[in-house]
């Protein structure tokens, strides 16, 4: 009986009291963690300027982070922000950008697991740091961009690479599951792209790259929770491109029609994509000359059947 009541509440999300209704929604609790080491050091003027305009709690937190590292991006170096960094593509992209001399800021719900990657990049002579961020939370995304711009400057490249998929048919999917997929695949890309656009529009330069999949253009049976959000992300990229290109900001949608290897291998006969080579494509998109920008690019292995993956 309790199970049936619980299911009913999850679907209707309101309790009726005569002409009034108590409305509510169920959301999974999201834990956002910082990395174990604070890899931030503020330029004195920028740091003082920014801290003076924030409340006491923020000042205490930031001052605690100062001085824990002597590493700071080299003057004049490019800055990239990757939102949604995981093994495989996210790690490969961070390494590629750092190798090209770009300072990288990594954002993930669990920033602690990025410590080894940050240390690896720094040991190789690059600059990297990690922030905890829930990309589906407006407050968390705004806080991320505020701290990044105040600490390191305005990013020249922002990549959104989150993807969430919960299989199910339309008849069986319940609203919380549908919303979860839409939030990660669409809402998060909107929040991140909007914050990036506001900074880059003022600067008159930059690249925003949204990473999609086959489900960005193909609604396969059982993939509603992925396709709806990815369709929306693609629409966002198209609208943003029309609005921001005239201001000098390059917006592109990268559609990956393949499974991505989490571990780098030399297996060219396989039908999965090498994350390092996808990272090369992202870097190439960012480096495209202004007279030959791409708004969308789809990539897959040479021996892959088109539109076979999700």
Look at the structure and give the mean pLDDT. 83
In total, the number of strands is 11
What gyration radius follows from the Cα positions, in whole Å? 21 Å
What's the CATH superfamily, by name?
Answer: NAD(P)-binding Rossmann-like Domain
CATH class designation = Alpha Beta
Q: How many angstroms does the end-to-end distance come to?
A: 38 Å
Low-confidence stretches: 38-52, 62-71
How is the biggest beta sheet arranged? 7 strands, parallel
- What oligomeric assembly is this protein in? single chain
CATH topology name: Rossmann fold
The CATH level-2 architecture is identified as 3-Layer(aba) Sandwich
**Which overall shape is indicated by the principal axes computed on the Cα atoms?**
globular
Please identify the structural class as seen in this structure: alpha/beta
């Amino acid at each position: 009986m309790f199970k049936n009541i619980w299911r009913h509440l999850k679907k209707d999300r309101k309790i009726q009291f005569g002409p009034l209704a108590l409305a509510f929604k169920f959301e999974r609790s999201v834990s956002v963690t910082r990395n174990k080491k604070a890899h931030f050091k503020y330029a004195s003027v920028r740091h003082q300027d920014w801290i003076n305009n924030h409340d006491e709690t923020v000042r205490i937190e930031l001052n605690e982070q100062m001085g824990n590292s002597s590493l700071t991006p080299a003057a004049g170096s490019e800055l990239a922000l990757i939102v949604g960094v995981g093994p495989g593509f996210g790690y490969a992209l961070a390494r590629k950008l750092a190798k090209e001399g770009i300072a990288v800021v990594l954002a993930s719900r669990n920033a602690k697991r990025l410590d080894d990657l940050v240390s690896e990049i720094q040991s190789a002579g690059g600059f990297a740091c990690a922030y905890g961020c829930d990309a589906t939370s407006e407050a968390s995304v705004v806080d991320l961009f505020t701290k990044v711009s105040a600490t390191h400057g305005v990013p020249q490249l922002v990549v959104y690479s989150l993807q969430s998929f919960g299989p199910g048919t339309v008849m069986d999917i319940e609203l919380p599951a549908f919303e979860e997929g839409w939030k990660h695949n669409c809402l998060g890309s909107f929040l991140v792209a909007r914050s990036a656009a506001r900074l880059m529009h003022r600067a008159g330069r930059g690249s925003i790259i949204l990473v999609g999949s086959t489900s960005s253009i193909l609604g396969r049976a059982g993939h509603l929770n992925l396709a709806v959000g990815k369709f929306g992300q693609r629409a966002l990229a198209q609208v943003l491109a029309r609005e921001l290109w005239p201001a000098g900001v390059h917006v592109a949608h990268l559609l990956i029609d393949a499974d991505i290897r989490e571990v780098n291998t030399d297996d060219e006969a396989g039908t999965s994509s090498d994350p390092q080579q996808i990272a090369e494509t992202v870097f190439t998109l960012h480096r495209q000359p202004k007279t030959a920008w791409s708004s969308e690019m789809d990539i897959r292995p040479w021996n892959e059947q088109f539109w076979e993956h999700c």
